[in-house]
Design brief:
Blueprint (H helix, E strand, L loop, with lengths): L1 H12 L7 E6 L3 E7 L5 H5 L4 H15 L4 E7 L1
Parallel strand pairs: 2-3
Antiparallel strand pairs: 1-2
Helix pairs in contact: 1-3
Amino acid sequence: MEKELVEHIVRSLVENPEKIDINVIEGEKSTILELRVMESDLGKVIGKHGRIAKAIRTLLSASASRTGRRVTLEILD
């Protein structure tokens, strides 16, 4: 569910939504989402001073708190 949430948000931000790649790494109590976008779209996902990335992470942790798991978003370049 968290992967779909991140994908939906990021698709609306970037110019090349077909180049979005999200890798899910499941752990015992946590999940890591590795997000890759085109280099030209990286700034749109991170935002000024990281504000957009922080907002996405806040939404993600709120969504994951219902299941009692910890979800981390890593934006890779």
